[in-house]
């Protein structure tokens, strides 16, 4: 058995380490039942790693203290109750039931303002590690604005913890400034340093928001550029193929003799324009055309044709 709970482990999945309170939890002489249940809970948590059984012992110990009002008002009983709750928080965290921590604590403390400073500290660290600091916004506000809590020795350190782990990560800079300005435990230099930190975090937050808005526009521009590049490549490929086809057709046409091409075009004109060459009005025209064609053929293609020699 262990006689103290200086730093109970808290292996939360994805939390990245153990949760530790800034002050050790010591066991003072207390009623026998609660003390024995606390020792059993610590042994089950640390040695046997039976988290469900450790939580059960913590609940029984808290209920035994709550059922006796005289013991509950005793300082030793309050310290034992706090220790039992810290072990219970660790057990819930080990079982990945950290979402139940606050509701479980309020079964024994009724309202957030009554939570001991060490338990509030552990809750802030817990929900910060699991990336859900918003759970502690109202709880921390209620506790820190309570006049009775502002006289406690840990009040200043809890203000720092609430600022750095809850308000600033959530972008609640107005509330953070009000908390710093209303903290009477801060000296002038400490208050100015805290306000500078809030201002710097606010500037970084605005910059991150602007960068986050510009990234989608940059991604859209890049997508348009990629699409335009792809379309341009396809168009260029199509034009290249078309140029090759036209070049091939032009080469084929140019390979046909010019005179034969002209003659074929002329005959095609006769067939197309003169839709009915057999009509009587077309016969004189065709007859004269045939004569001219034979004369041109005899004059151009006859091997006996020789141009006159000039003397």
Automatic annotation (TrEMBL):
What does UniProt give as GO cellular component? Answer: peroxisomal membrane
Descriptive protein name: Peroxisomal biosis factor 26
> From what superkingdom does this record's organism come?
Eukaryota
Coiled coil segments of this chain = none
Q: PANTHER family of this UniProt entry? A: PEROXISOME ASSEMBLY PROTEIN 26
Quote the InterPro entries the UniProt record gives. Answer: Pex26 (IPR010797)
Q: Which GO terms describe its molecular function?
A: ATPase binding; protein-containing complex binding; protein-membrane adaptor activity
> Which GO terms of type biological process are on file?
protein import into peroxisome matrix, receptor recycling; protein import into peroxisome membrane; protein to membrane docking; protein unfolding
The record lists the organism as Sphenodon punctatus
């Amino acid at each position: 058995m262990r006689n103290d709970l200086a730093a109970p482990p808290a292996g939360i999945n994805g939390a990245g380490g153990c949760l530790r309170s800034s002050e050790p939890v010591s066991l003072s002489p207390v009623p026998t039942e609660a003390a024995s249940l606390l020792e059993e809970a610590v042994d089950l948590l640390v040695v046997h790693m039976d988290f469900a059984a450790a939580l059960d012992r913590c609940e029984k110990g808290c209920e035994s203290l709550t059922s006796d009002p005289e013991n509950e008002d005793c300082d030793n009983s309050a310290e034992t109750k706090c220790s039992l709750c810290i072990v219970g928080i660790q057990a819930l965290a080990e079982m990945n039931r950290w979402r139940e921590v606050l509701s479980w604590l309020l079964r024994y403390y009724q309202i957030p303002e009554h939570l001991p400073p060490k338990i509030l500290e552990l809750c802030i660290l817990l929900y910060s590690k699991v990336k859900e600091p918003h759970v502690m916004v109202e709880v921390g506000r209620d506790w820190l604005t309570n006049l009775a809590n502002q006289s406690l020795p840990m009040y200043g350190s809890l203000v720092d913890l609430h600022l750095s782990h809850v308000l600033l990560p959530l972008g609640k800079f107005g509330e953070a400034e009000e908390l710093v300005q209303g903290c009477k435990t801060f000296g002038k230099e400490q208050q100015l340093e805290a306000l500078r930190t809030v201002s710097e975090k606010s500037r970084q937050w605005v910059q991150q928001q602007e960068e986050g808005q510009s990234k989608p526009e940059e991604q859209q521009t890049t997508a348009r550029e990629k699409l335009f590049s792809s379309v341009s490549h396809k168009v260029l490929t199509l034009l290249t193929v078309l140029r090759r086809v036209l070049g091939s057709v032009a080469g084929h046409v140019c390979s046909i003799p010019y005179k034969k091409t002209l003659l074929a075009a002329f005959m095609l004109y006769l067939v197309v324009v003169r839709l009915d060459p057999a009509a009587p009005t077309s016969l004189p025209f065709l007859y004269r055309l045939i004569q001219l064609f034979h004369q041109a053929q005899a004059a151009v293609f006859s091997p006996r044709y020789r141009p006159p020699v000039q003397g």
